[in-house]
Write a structure and sequence with these properties.
- This protein is α+β, with helices and mostly antiparallel strands.
- It is built from 12 helices and 7 strands.
- The protein has a 7-stranded mixed β-sheet with strand order 2-1-3-7-6-5-4, with helices on both faces.
- The protein is rod-shaped.
- The chain starts with a helix and ends with a helix.
Length: about 375
């Protein structure tokens, strides 16, 4: 759509009440940066709204409407609108202003989406799963290791809208890094989309490195001297957390491949080379997660084998002691029968002889079991 057409569209939205609704939203909800916790009141959906021309931040008025009007009037630059957990009412005017598809809007508001890339006309809609490692002093069977969130990104010819869900994955530092590189930011909304994808995938690699430390600790405990006494619940907990990490990382492979290879109007061909690098990093994270899963399976099998061996050793000890106890039980059981004619019943040395015989046989059995490793 031409710039004149965009201006006509904005004007028509103003007559229909869409711009007025967005303006009221901007005045009612202060624009704050959630990356700074001291200035982040709960419930503030609008994080930031900035206009850029030639990669440089420019004054854009007091609200979103002023920023859009400035960009579309100059036919240069773009607007970057950041939101955090918006509601349907908060997003309605924004969706109308930028002509966002209702299905994409529904996904952006409801969250809990799979990583994906969809095209609605000239607008791209991308979903990224963000992850962060939950620090813990000791891994237990109930420890939370990986926490996930979501970032939805709408990309058009002259706008980028980011919708973040979750308390981690702030884009404040990312925005500052992009503003420090005007040459890259001047490439338009596609540069922002690449920066977000690169930021998310870099977090994947950091989390996998941290999870590897937990797996190494569990492996060390399992193969220690008392490895059979290790808690298998920790292994199952790591597998559950690894599954959550896999659900966040693995589905992103196809969207990144499309961004890196397929021609998309809003993605500059020069930016696609950068997406190929992000795709390589995502593939590396996916391979690490698959390797971790196999390693945890091996650790679990080794632990179960150790438990089986320990149980066999316990059974051998019990059997050895039972065999030694069976000797006096048998002899005493025979002489405990009430028969008149039994050998050595009236002999003076009969009792010491029986006790000595029992002791010698039990001692011989004990030495034999010790020599064979049963005791």
């Amino acid at each position: 759509m031409s710039m004149a057409g965009n201006l006509r569209k904005v004007t028509s939205l103003g007559r229909g009440g869409g711009l007025r609704r967005v303006a009221r939203l901007a005045r009612r909800r202060p624009r704050v940066d959630l990356s700074h916790h001291a200035r982040s009141p709960l419930g503030s959906a609008v994080v930031n709204c900035v206009a850029y021309e030639d990669g440089v931040r420019v004054p854009a008025g007091r609200d979103l409407v002023d920023a859009v009007r400035r960009v579309r009037k100059s036919d240069e630059g773009f607007v970057w609108l950041g939101l955090h957990g918006p509601t349907d009412q908060e997003f309605a005017g924004i969706a109308q202003l930028f002509d966002l598809h209702p299905l994409a809007v529904e996904d952006a508001v409801d969250a809990h989406q799979r990583p994906k890339l969809e095209r609605y006309g000239e607008t791209l809609f991308a979903v990224f799963k963000t992850v962060c490692y939950v620090e813990h002093t000791e891994l237990t069977a109930t420890s939370e290791v990986v926490n996930t969130g979501e970032i939805m990104v709408f990309v058009g010819q002259d706008f980028v809208i980011t919708v973040r869900h979750g308390r981690h994955g702030s884009l404040g530092p990312l925005r500052e890094g992009l503003e420090a590189d005007p040459q890259q930011l001047a490439k338009g909304p596609a540069a922002v989309l690449h920066a977000i994808a690169d930021h998310v995938v870099d977090d994947y690699l950091q989390v996998t490195d941290a999870v590897q430390a937990d797996i190494d600790q569990v492996e060390t405990d399992v193969f220690a001297t008392n490895g059979a006494r290790a808690d298998p619940g920790r292994i199952y907990q790591l597998k559950r957390e690894l599954l959550e990490l896999k659900r966040a990382v693995a589905p992103l492979n196809r969207p990144l491949q499309e961004l890196a290879t397929r021609p998309i109007r809003v993605i500059d061909p020069e930016i696609q080379a950068y997406f190929r690098d992000v795709s390589d990093h995502q593939l590396r994270a996916t391979e690490q997660i698959a390797a971790f899963d196999e390693l945890l399976n091996s650790i679990l099998q080794a632990h179960l084998a150790q438990v089986t061996v320990a149980q066999n050793e316990d059974m051998r000890r019990i059997t050895a002691w039972a065999a030694m106890i069976a000797v006096p039980t048998m002899v005493c059981g025979v002489y405990g029968m009430n028969f008149d004619h039994m050998p050595e019943l009236r002999w003076q040395f009969g009792y010491p002889l029986v006790i000595g015989l029992i002791s010698v046989v039990c001692l011989a059995l004990y030495r034999s079991f010790r020599r064979n490793g049963w005791l």
